[in-house]
TrEMBL record:
Protein name, as recorded: DNA, contig: SP636
GO cellular component: a single term: plasma membrane
Lineage per the UniProt record: Bacteria, Pseudomonadati, Pseudomonadota, Alphaproteobacteria, Sphingomonadales
Cited Pfam families: Polysacc_synt_3 (PF13440)
Keywords on record: Cell membrane, Membrane, Transmembrane, Transmembrane helix
Transmembrane segment boundaries: 12-32, 38-61, 73-95, 101-123, 144-162, 225-243, 282-303, 315-338, 350-372, 378-397, 409-428, 434-455
Length: 479
């Protein structure tokens, strides 16, 4: 069950990220980094509004042992009202913010994107109810269709010369279709209401989640805000495109799998043998996917970017070469948050987020005056050290032995190393033509897959640990 859910949601996230990245590359071919930077700079404000209106209730809905229809409806009603108020405030503040930081063109983009967050907030509760019932295949189907249809419309708009507005159109269409489909699917058990007194139980847990999410928001978005305000829209556009590569495994694998892990292990002792086997399998499966993919970017990205995009984007491969390895380590290490929630230690998660945010924001502030690449290098060092600390925390939370963790991660590291060595001694790590790039990519893929084939027993054990999990009882009661 866990493996099937992990495949559904991780596959969906990979698909979503691939489509979104394709959209971004298409837009990059038509616009300058400064125009793209408007979307990058606006996104943190949308994320903040979504968190403030969510109040941690969607996580609480997923985790709560029991949930009434009134509670779910009140959560949706509260979130929709809060989202509408925040969207109005965002529109009202867009033009003053544009004038304050001197970022021309920001206000109309920010005002239009306010509609995106309003639709996303309204879709959050019905989606959380589906996740609570472990209906991940249905979630994946809905999101895949919405993304495909919106991408077609967005690419058509980009081809017609809409520029950055094609990304705005894409996001609005995705969220509108998600809201319609999730709302229709859960129409039998969900009716928005204003009985906000029903929310005490959800908010008692969700409050800590909200505080933790706000801290994570600062850690993940303060770089874009600081770069945009300090270095301008062009710099944040280049950094934003490069940062997507680092964030891709976290979004595609770790975040959706963390939600599944939370639902699957709900009510279990994280030190128990079944929980340990599950966590070990998740860590190993994540490493098998993200490690070779991210290390490939350190040498395989430069040629296609230089060939397909204008010189305005030339710094992207150099930034990715620093961020990608740290992104792989971060994706493997970031399940500690879900495990803290399984153990009911939300206060500990909050304190961890305080430390994480303080370190990252201090890193950004201290490094930014020395230029964009100095910030990238400092950020890479900071996130790598913290990821190692998160892995140590996972060991403590589950009681896994360090040698058992090492065995879980070793196949991915060995296969990736073999792939890099194979490319280095054959085609070289710096292809100068499409033929050379294709050969290097093929050689790397063949080396990694050959190692996985040689280590097939480990891969089979990993899958077996994930396939043995069943779904917990998570019904929605009448009222």
């Amino acid at each position: 069950m866990l493996a099937r859910n992990m495949l559904s949601m991780s596959g969906l996230s990979l698909y979503r990220n691939a489509v979104q990245f394709g959209m971004n590359v298409a837009i990059a071919a038509f616009v300058l980094p400064g125009d793209y930077g408007l979307i990058v700079f606006t996104t943190p404000f949308l994320v903040l509004i979504a968190m403030l209106t969510d109040l941690g209730m969607t996580s609480a809905i997923t985790r709560a042992p029991t949930l009434s229809r009134d509670e779910a409806g009140a959560a949706m009603g509260a979130m929709m009202i809060g989202g509408a108020v925040c969207a109005v405030l965002l529109v009202a503040g867009a033009w003053p913010l544009e004038r304050a930081i001197g970022m021309a063109g920001l206000a109309p983009v920010m005002a239009a994107m306010a509609g995106v967050v309003l639709l996303s907030i309204a879709a959050a509760t019905p989606r959380a109810l589906m996740e609570r019932e472990l209906r991940y295949a249905g979630i994946a189907r809905i999101e895949a269709i919405a993304i495909a249809l919106a991408a077609i419309a967005g690419l058509a708009a980009a081809w017609s010369g809409a520029g950055v507005w094609s990304l705005v159109l894409y996001n609005i269409l995705v969220q509108a279709m998600r809201l319609g489909a999730f709302g229709w699917t859960m129409r039998g058990v969900l009716r928005p209401n204003a009985r906000f007194g029903q929310l005490k139980g959800l908010l008692s847990f969700g409050g800590w989640v909200l505080a933790n999410n706000i801290l994570n928001f600062l850690a993940r978005n303060s770089d874009n805000l600081l770069i945009g305000a300090w270095l301008g829209a062009a710099a944040v556009g280049v950094y934003g495109l490069a940062y997507q590569f680092m964030l891709a495994p976290l979004m595609a694998i770790t975040w959706p799998t963390s939600g599944i892990l939370l639902s699957t292990l709900r009510g279990e002792d994280p030190h128990g043998p079944r929980a340990q086997a599950t966590v070990e399998g998740v860590l190993s499966a994540t490493a098998l996917i993200v490690t070779p993919a991210m290390i490939y970017l350190t040498f395989g990205l430069a040629f296609p970017v230089d060939s397909l995009l204008s010189g305005h984007w030339a710094a992207v491969p150099a930034i990715v070469a620093w961020l990608a390895p740290a992104g792989a380590l971060q994706a493997i290490a970031s399940y500690n948050g879900a495990l803290l929630m399984v153990a009911g230690r939300v206060k500990a998660q909050f304190l961890l987020s305080v430390a994480n945010t303080a370190v990252l924001v201090a890193t950004f502030v201290l490094a930014l005056p020395h230029g964009l690449m100095a910030l990238v290098q400092a950020y890479t060092a900071a996130i790598s050290v913290m990821s190692l600390a998160f892995l140590a925390m996972t060991v403590m939370l589950t009681g896994l032995r360090v040698e058992r963790l090492a065995r879980a991660l070793a196949p991915a590291l060995l296969a990736t190393g073999a792939g890099v060595v194979g490319v280095a001694v054959t085609t070289g790590l710096h292809p100068a033509s499409w033929t050379g790039w294709i050969a290097a990519t093929a050689m790397y893929g063949a080396g990694v897959l050959a190692c996985y084939a040689a280590l097939h027993l480990h891969v089979r054990r990993t899958l077996a640990a994930l396939l043995t999990r069943g779904a917990p009882d998570a019904a929605i009661t009448g009222r």
